[in-house]
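User: Batch of two.

Assistant: Item 1 of 2:
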Amino acid sequence: MDGIAKIDSPASHAEPIRPVNAPRQWIYKHQVTTRIWHWINVVTVFIMIGSGLGILNAHPHLYWGQYGANLDPAWLHLPRWPGWMTIPGHYNLALSRRWHMFFALVFGFGLLFFMISSLINRHFQRQLRISSGELSPGHLWFDIKEHLAFRFHDSKNPGAFNVLQKIAYASTIFFFIPTLILTGLAMSPGMNAAWPWLIELFGGRSSARSIHFIGMVALIGFIVVHLALVMLAGPIGEIRSMITGYWQVPEERH
């Protein structure tokens, strides 16, 4: 590729040296397995949220414990979601469940594929490993100030994730998504028969349903923040890097 220097590891230690008026540097930032998983999730999460809201419309009340019905006290009463937010666009519990269950399989096996490939290509170790120094109050406050100034990368190591990115991605990959998958399984009567310990882990089927909803809200919050930062960092360059893998290092802001 003319004018592109491929860097095998996104966490390269060498500071880019660029003469005045020279073309900006390109780095290989996203590996192919990461890009595949990302775009599969774009479709999968959109359909799962819409179909999940369609299922929730059947009984938009949340409870804690084993049971939950109309006469039980709910901790949260939700509105019924309009058709433009649900899949399908009209109330059909059976069809919403079919959409949700099919893409739940895609979601779960996609995560498994990504985790195995990331262990093989050392993506977790290279990009998501958090050192104790990065969790110090001073370092965290510095990264927060850099984000507020719209500086999202280190000029000395532009391909590396900052600590706020690491915390967000690691918590989503290793906590929020697995929690969504496990609580979804805990709500299945068939899985309760095979793995009775799963429903006990969450304190009952109604508790699993509540945690599942909270996890969905957390995932939506992550997506909103992620899209906002993509827009601030430059959507064309960020989307292009998630398609081709190559990212153009922006000019350093002062």
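Item 2 of 2:
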Amino acid sequence: MSDPLDVARYIFMNDESELRSGWRMLVFALFLVLAASLLMGLSKAFATLFPPLNFLLAEPSGSETLSRRELILLFAANLRNLAAALIASAICARMLERRSLASVGFKLHRGWFRDLGLGSLMGASALAIAVGIAAAAGAITFDVNTTRAENLALGCTIALLFFLIAGATEELIFRGFPFQALVHNLGGAAAVAITSVIFGLAHLANPSATAFSTINTILAGVWLGLAYLMTRSLWLATALHWSWNFAMAFIFGLPVSGFTTLDQLAWLRGSIGSPLWISGGNYGPEGGAAATVALILSTAAMWKSGLFTPSEEMLGAIRHDRREPAFVSIVPNEEQTASDHYQD
């Protein structure tokens, strides 16, 4: 392999004439950053044209009580993140693997609603198990935050939409195109291991993060990665993700990965006590052993349940078109070479 072109091709391209999975992950990360920057720039331009909307560019105050404007600000940021993830996924899926955005995970395949519904039930139940263990150990106590029906309805709606958007965004980033590129070239076990570690490390910057919370987040990455592998779509993984966070924040009023942003909307108000290695402390249940047990049990139950299988639609949709795109070719393709030769 002394030819520089052969060396370059070996470094960058795989046997299917596609960029190797690691390079595809980097390309996705680049487009994600570019899309996020573009959307922020467009938001600033829009706010300049319509000054009353300048508040959309402000940073949240971090206060315990969110104003209506701050809630709108949170949703605007969430929607920008989701849009950036969709744009990066669409470009990379089409450009690098010649497949559709829907094939990345949100195709309305047969059984998608069933996956979403069962996953939502399983995610909330897993979180309830973690909270139940901590409460039985005396590490968490509760009192009622509100009983007014209108407050509960409003809080439920806001929390549901917020965590659905956030869950879909994180799943597109962590179990979407990059994860699937690794699955295609390295296999499911390697993809789960690599992305789960990245998922855990990505939460280290969260408030009150600890080594224990990082381990649990890695376990959650395994749980969610397995959900994709069992269905080859993101409906189940997104359902597990959003419902776990929704139950933690709205039902039990506990910190979600260190954040207490929506506490004021909760039905109950959770108080974290000792021992912290069970309760998770200020990070919330995900920082303690109760969540470790719940994640392991839920992962095993999902794996052994026999409830989830990939649809034929998704198995067909995720197949790559092996034709080599001209813009990643580093040597002339055979058809073009033959055509040039004929013209000469």
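Residues 16-321 form one domain.
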